[in-house]
Structures
1.
Amino acid sequence: MNPGEGSMDRYLATRDGKLHKLWQDDGLLSMRWEGIVRHPLGMLVPVVLVELTEKGKSDAAGTPNSGFIGIKMCEQQFDRITGIEISNNDTAAKVEYTWKLANLTPFGKRQNEVLGQGAFCGNLASQADSILMSLYDDGWRVAQ
C-alpha cells in the first residue's frame, strides 16, 4: 500500500470524494472514514460511511432502511408538443413532444459543477420523444 492510500485525504482527491466533500460543505451529508478493504478483484477500495443530514434528506428518495437511498438531482419536465400524426381512421395518434431536465436540487447543482455533461442532470437542453395514443369513448389515452 502506498503512503496515504488508506486515508480520507486520498479519498477526497477522487472524483466521488470531491463531490461528497462539496455536499458535506453544503450541509447535505456527513462522512466518516471506515478504512480500506480489498475488493474480490484485488483492488483496494475505500470504505466511507456517508449519511444524509436533515437538510439532505429533503432530496432523498427510496426506502430509508434499505441501505441505499436514491437522491433527487433534478426533475424531468414536459416542454411542448411538436407534432401530432393521426392514423387508423382517426383513432390512433403519434404525439411528438420535447421534455427537459430542470429544477436542479443542491445535489444536482454540485454534481453538474464537478461532472459537467457527464452528470445525471448535465444536459439541460430539450430532448425529443414521442408516444402513441389511442382514442376511446371518453377521450385519448396512452396506448399500452
2.
Amino acid sequence: MTLIPKYEWLKKRNPKGKMQLFEPLRAVGLAIEKGHKASLDKGLSNVEVSDVDTVKITGKLEGWDGASWQDLKTCFLSLRPQDSALALEAIQKQREYFQDLGYNYHKVDFRLPGSRVSLDLLGDFSPLAAPSLQACGKVWVELKAFDSDRFDKKEGEEETKLKQLLPRVMQADSNIQGVRLVCSRMEKAGHGHYKFAGIQSKLLAAGAENFVRVEGTKQFVSRGFAASKPDLVTTFSKLEWHTPVSQAHSGTKVALLADLLKVLKQPPGTPGKRAQAFNKRLKGPASRRLRTLKLAKAGQKPWVGTKAVMRKVYKML
C-alpha cells in the first residue's frame, strides 16, 4: 500500500466535494484513535510512538508521487515526530479523563453489525460514576482534535452531525443510549507545531434535545490538567448585556469585562489594568477595543466591550 511521507502530498475530498490538503490535526485525530486501540491490545504504558507514527487513510484521495498527482482509494500517511508525540499525550490525558468520569471503553473503531456506521469508542460508566451517566447504558464516544482558533465552530458542526446520527446508531443497537463528543483543544505553538491545551466533553443522551457539558472532578483539575473554557454560547448567555447611553440610537449592546472574567473563572484584578493589557494585545480598530462607556443601567463607567470584542478576549483566555 502507498506510503505518503508528507501531509502536503495528500489530498482528500471534503464533504463539499472538493479536494483539499490533509491537515496535521486530522492526522493527529486518527493517530489518537489508533493509539486507543493499541492500548486495549498491549496496555496504555506500552503504547509507543511507533504505534501512532502512521495512520491509514481511505476515501477519494490524491497522492503526489514526486511528479504528478495520482488517484488513490487507500494509503498510509506518516506523521511528523511532533504530531506523534502530541497524539501520545492526548491519549494519556483522555484516558485519565475517562478514568476520572468512570467511563470504561471496550471497543475501538467498532462498526455496528448491519450498519455502515463506525464508532470511535464504545463502553459504559462504572457504578462510581454519577447516576445520570450510569443511566445512559452503553455510550459511544467520538474523538476529535481541533485547532483552538476554530474550536467552537468545529465542535458545533460535529454536534449537528452527531444529533442526526444518534437515532441511526440506537436503531442498530438499542442498548446504546447516548453519545459523548470528546474534543481535544490544540493550540498553535509556532513553526507549524501544536500543543495540547485541554479537553472539552459533552454528552447527548437518548431523548435529549441538546448536548450538555460533562466535567471531571475537582481532583482531576487540581492534578494539573488544563481544563477547557465553557463554549461561547454558554459564556455569552451568562453575561449581562446593556445599551450604553451614547449608543442608544444604534442599539449596540455591550457586556462588562468583569462579568466575562467571572464566567471564565479568571481573577478580575483591577478591571482597568486588565483592560489596558487586553487592548495592547487586541491591536484592532477602536471599535474592537475595550472602552469605558457610561451605561444607562449602571450610571458609571465600567470597562465594557461589544460581542466581537468579548469574543476576541475569550480567545486570549
3.
Amino acid sequence: MTRIFFNRAVLIAFAFAIFVVPYNSVHAQSDEVKSARDKVTESADKLTKLKAEAVAPLDELSVKKTALKGVLDLSLAEAKNLYDQVSMFEEHESELVILQQELLDNLQSFTAHLVAEKTRFEGVTDIDGIKLFAQTLNNWRTNVYNPEVTKAIEFRLVMRTQEVLKTTDERFIRLSQLVKRTKSIQGKTGEGETLLNQAARNIKDARIAYGEARQALIGYVPVVESNAIGLIVPSISKGEIAKPIALPEKRRISDLVGDAFMSLKGAYDSFLKLARLIVAAQ
C-alpha cells in the first residue's frame, strides 16, 4: 500500500487553509474602517444620552459635530477600503470589466467628495449649520453613496467566491488522488468514494448559486445598443445609476453568496472526514 504521510498538525493546517482563511477574507475590513465604525457607534450612544438629558447648547454642538465627523470618517474609510478590494480582482468578462471600472471611478469620486466635505465641515460652527450639513450628507449617502457601495460589496463577494471555488476544486482534485492511492479507505464500504461524491454535489450546488449571483451582478451593467451609424452606446444616459435585475427578496446577491458558502461548508466537512480517513489508514 502506498504510504501517504499526514499528521494532526498537517490535518489542522489543511482544514484552516481550505475553509477558514477563504471564508473570513470574503468579509475582511481594514483596521481603519473598524476603528471609524466603533467611533460612530460611540457617538450614536452619546447622542441617545443627549436626548434624554438637558445639556448646554455648546455641549450639544460638540457631541453632534463629533458624531457627524465620525460618519464622514467612516464613509471615507469605507470608500478607500472598497476601492482597494475591488481593484485587486482581475476580471476578463467584458460586462464585469465595465462594472469594475465604473465602481472604481465612483469610489474614487466619493473619496474626493468626502475629503472636500470634511474641509467644508470644519467651517460649520452652529447647531443650524450642523443640522443642514447632516441632512445634506444623509441625502447624499442614501441616494448616491449607499447604492454604489452596495454594488462594490456585492462585486467583491462574487469575485471572492469565484476564487474560493477555484481553490476548492484544487483541493477536491488533490483529495481524489489521495483517496485513489490510499487503497485501504476504498474498502468494501466505499466510504472514501461516498464522501467524494457528497463533496462533488456540494461544490456543484455552490457553483449554481455562484452563477446566479454572477448573473445578478452583470445585471448592473447598462445594456448596449447600436445606433443609426453603427456605434455601440449605453442604453442609459450618462450619470444614471444602472439598476440590478429583479430578484425575489430572498435571492439577493448576498443571499446567493451565502448559499454558495453553505454548500462549500458541506464540501469542506467531507474533505475533513476524508483527511481523517487518510490519517487513520497510515
4.
Amino acid sequence: MYNNEYVKDSSTSLLILSSFLFMSNMISTHYMGYFVYCVLFLCLTISSITYHYNSNTITKTIDRIFVISAILYAGYIFYQKANKHNVNKVIFVIMSFFTIVLFYCYGYYANEYCFDYDIRIGNIYHSFIHIISSIGFHTIMFM
C-alpha cells in the first residue's frame, strides 16, 4: 500500500496553498458569530499547513484531531440549520461530504484518489478535498 506520509515533491506546495482556504472559513465563522468554530478553523489552518510542510506522525495526529473537531462541530451546526427551506444547500452539503468520503476513505483502501501511487495525483485529489470541504463548511455557515 502506498504511504505518502514522508514523501515530498513539488505538488506538496499545492497542499500547503489549498490549506490556506480554511482561513476563509475562519473569517466567515467569525463574521457569523461562531467564535468556537472560528478558533477550530484557525487551528485547522495551522495544523494543515504544518502537516503538509512537515509530514510526520505527530503533525498528522494533530491535524486529524482538528479535522475531526471541525467536522463534528459542522455536523452540529448543520443539524441545527437544516430545514425544508434550504433543501438545495442540505443536498449540496451531503453530496460534498460523501465526495470527501469517497476521495479519502475509499481511496485509502483502493490506493486511489488521495492515496494514488503517483504522489502528484494523490496531492491533487487531497487539494480538491480542501476545496470541497471549505465550500461545504461555507455552505453550512450561510444556510
